[in-house]
């Protein structure tokens, strides 16, 4: 895995001097993040710096905003990438003093910074100047203190009298008789929100005037949980609980990739192939559910397509169960490899996987007959939920959502890891920018995943018996060097899933930050649905394929 | 209403039970008994359809097994479900507009029951056969929309309100094409009387190899049949036109707030409407109770036909996506309305030329 990164190092170096020239008057200091140059700037030059990087250097993807508190200061880190080349990264570090942590907001430059900075404010306590709507996002409005801050008192009671708690019904327009609009709470319990999501919706008749997602119902502070676990074994079970729609191995890989790069662990090739196969099985299972539930949103009943998708997902689940011993919370990856080898007898397992993969084209043909070629479904999805390419980029949308908007961006290909660059497959891109395109992208991705799995099985079958090495030799306790920082991403089922880790020389991470693709993708919902009809908003929400466990973390 | 004297069920019963000697009172009692029989037959069918047949049919379409715990093929789930539904708590939402909220389920269920009064079900089962039978059945069937609006408005729930508004918009969009297409059948028969519409379809259209093909209007004018079927599915509010309910959008719409007995009544009403829709289709286009065999088993054929319609609605439910309300209105006003008038004019020309 680290092979590729080493070859890219010179490129980054050369880019670094150019960037230094570009930002010459703004840089206060430089930092050494593992795979990106990091520049320290003053908190009042955030917009200027990011603006230059976006418009002049082409860093058009604000992947993540990490906020953390040090004993003497607060820091916001803007992790920038290019949609054309995600290996070309740069981190902008914005320290603010601990007495008065105010930093300029990046929202005018990158729309996606809106939610990311709200989260930073909510959990860490940094305030952002010029932010359009700096409120808590994950925790209730009335929450006392910032849980990721150093002086946070866990035992402080959080009981808030009802009268002080925001009443979601208060904004009801009943008293305002002259108003033409109607306020409706869609969720947190609603059949189409796919979990506990609350959409504060303003309607004008059947049309959506404004929709504001209210998230955080499933917030568990997974980041803090990871910070309390040791690198070696205690963190790996948590990623399964981010995107729990059977995308567990994809999530585990996000942590594995970051931690392995941080601790310089070389994963044996054989283990990489098993990982690749497992991850793609997860992707198929996740996309099957996405297609099924999207159809459910459009059809309105548990129809044939939903049951067929679940039936085919079940086959992937059974194989994953054979492989990992679990159906949902796999906990199969280990730093340096996987926990155990393929199930015995191996031939039987390969046969099962082959049968599954060979059935995929027929199954998809059936789906196409049932849904994509259905005229009513086309009426409902073509041209609705429009997300133009530029808007998608501005919101940091990734995964099938970005690829449905014509953005040719896939971490598996553009920033290769695992065994993907050795295999023959394609990245499906559709440029319709609508609900239909996103559906098509997912269905085509299933096909590509099947191709990858087939090639993996071929490789695994012929692998020399004495080289079946499933785990590298990893020390029992990992203590990466102090102040080593890394941000690594993988292609999860919903998009770019990343993990930022800062080590402090102990066996636990000092800061563990998750870049959730659903979090960024969900932010585009108002763009897609304002001015549209309610059913189209529901369809757009379904086409985003969010998992609240990952949105809220 | 002028009751035709031929042999509606009440008269037969009156003769049978010797009630005809008691004058008006005897007729009244006979009519009550007849209505009781017809009503219970329909309710029994609904009882089979709702908790059991619907599940089994959908399960077959979607690769599942469905109810199979109680009795053979799970048929025992019907009494179990009835008990379960009726024993639930009746929750009245705060601020509900009573008694409108209480009356609405009765209207939805009752309007469908009223429709069956004029349907000739074969084997001599027909409560009344007024001259304006077809107009009557269309009229009472659309009263259900009123019930939906009442339910939605009185529930004090925004989703319900949206559902009620959708029901009205949908009703306006499909009702005219439905009635106009029905009128094209009347042009053939020259009568609104249900029994005469059925009788007009009994003649043999053509004989192919000894098999007589009857002149059912579905065969005479398949275009009108398809049009009527589409409008009828919209009338009963099934997929792809289940827009007033739309569980994934407005959470069952007008019935969101109903529970227990009221919910059962609403559901009953919906199934009765499906059967009434099937009955109207059967009478207008499928020769009523006609079928092979002696005339006395006509009722069986009639049941087969309305269950076929029920099967069609369930098939669509498993296969067809839902339209958006504006798309439905477009289909109704810009498509079906024009087509139905075209069909009417063509029928008039054909009838004028042939006759």
From TrEMBL, chain A:
The keyword Cell membrane applies. Keywords: Cell membrane, Membrane, Multifunctional enzyme, NAD, Oxidoreductase, Transport. Its main location: membrane. It comes from the Archaea. Its EC number is 1.6.5.11. One of its GO terms (molecular function) is NAD binding. In the C-terminal section; belongs to the complex I 49 kDa subunit family. NDH-1 is composed of 13 different subunits. Subunits NuoB, CD, E, F, and G constitute the peripheral sector of the complex. This is NADH-quinone oxidoreductase subunit C/D. It comes from Halolamina pelagica. The lineage of its organism: Archaea, Methanobacteriati, Methanobacteriota, Stenosarchaea group, Halobacteria. The gene is nuoCD_1.
UniProtKB/TrEMBL annotation, chain B:
The keyword Protein transport does not apply. One of its GO terms (molecular function) is NADH dehydrogenase activity. Keywords: Membrane, Transmembrane, Transmembrane helix. GO terms for biological process: aerobic respiration. It comes from the Archaea. The keyword Heme does not apply. GO terms for cellular component: membrane. HAMAP family: NDH1_NuoH. PANTHER family: NADH DEHYDROGENASE SUBUNIT 1 (PTHR11432), NADH-UBIQUINONE OXIDOREDUCTASE CHAIN 1 (PTHR11432:SF3). This is FPO subunit H. It comes from Halolamina pelagica. The lineage of its organism: Archaea, Methanobacteriati, Methanobacteriota, Stenosarchaea group, Halobacteria.
